[in-house]
Amino acid sequence: MSHHIVEAEGLSYTYPDSNRGIHNIRFRITHGESVAIVGANGAGKSTLLLHLNGYLAPATGTMRIGDFPITRKNLKTVRRSVGMVFQDPDDQLFMPTVFDDVAFGPLNLGLPADAVEKQVQEALNRVNGVHLKKRAPYKLSGGEKRTVAIATVLAMSPDILVMDEPSSNLDPMARNLLIELLKTFEHTKIIATHDLDLALDICERTIVLHDGYITADGSTIDIFQDETLLSASGLAKPLKMQGCPVCGKSRKSNTKKLVDSPEKIKNKK
């Protein structure tokens, strides 16, 4: 299933104001992997995600989805495979009703009305949002907007699901429903998040970004046990892996340095 593969090779991007977004990013994600992208604010997570379906074009290097390099010519094909849930749901919701927003993608694929109706119903069912179908998106709460934004992507039946901070603005119950939903998505998942507990629940692999560089790429458990690496990246252990505040007991750490620090990477250039 080569169309499920995501591969970055020497990917770099600098913003027009000369601020570097990402530098020399290299990874390969295969079919069915669940991968977390973690890092502090400004680490380059959103910049990287915006390359995954062509919203940003690399200054150098390439991004491939399956057999297709992401180019202007291939954007339509790539975006049928990659479903992107943005950090701000308002970037995705623009139609008069929730139904219209969720139906927008399937309609643009040319599906007949009855098939669109079915896709919308199934997508809203999956996110527990059928009761929102007739609501105007601008009248929804932040969590409800995020729920609908996820449904708009699921209605397209993507091969690769990309999400930027999917648990932000969700109450605990909605967050738990999101985790259970993501566990049922059988294809490739790439999730940029500050919520390391969510990453621990869903993603077997984690990529750490710091100052635009990949500083670690490996098993989520190994990376989240490496307190030195996490601290250097502006992160802390997931709450599930921290010691009990009452008894002070904590898991033993079996840490492993996975790749060089950004400073060492720079010195090698």
Question: Could you please describe the fold and organization of this structure?
Answer:
The protein is an alpha/beta fold. The chain has one domain (2-268): Rossmann fold, CATH 3.40.50. It is built from ten helices and ten strands. The chain has helices spanning 45-49, 75-81, 98-108, 113-126, 142-154, 172-184, 196-202, 220-225, 227-232, 262-268, and strands spanning 6-14, 20-29, 34-38, 60-65, 68-69, 82-85, 160-164, 188-192, 205-210, 213-219. Helix 4 (113-126) packs across helix 5 (142-154).
Largest sheet: 6 strands, mixed
Helix coverage percent of residues?
Answer: 25-40%
**Helix and strand run:** EEEHEEHEHHHEHEHEEHHH
Instruction: Quickly give the CATH architecture.
Output: 3-Layer(aba) Sandwich
User: Any low-confidence stretches, pLDDT <50, length ≥5?
Assistant: 251-258
Please identify which CATH superfamily we are dealing with: P-loop containing nucleotide triphosphate hydrolases
Instruction: Determine the structural class based on helices, strands and strand pairing.
Output: alpha/beta
Subunit organisation of the chains: single chain
Separate helix tally: 10
CA(first)-CA(last) distance: 35 Å
Total domains, how many?
Answer: 1
Bin the strand percentage.
Answer: 15-25%
Assign the CATH topology. Answer: Rossmann fold
Widest sheet: strand ordering:
6-7-8-3-9-10
Mean of pLDDT:
87
Number of strands: 10
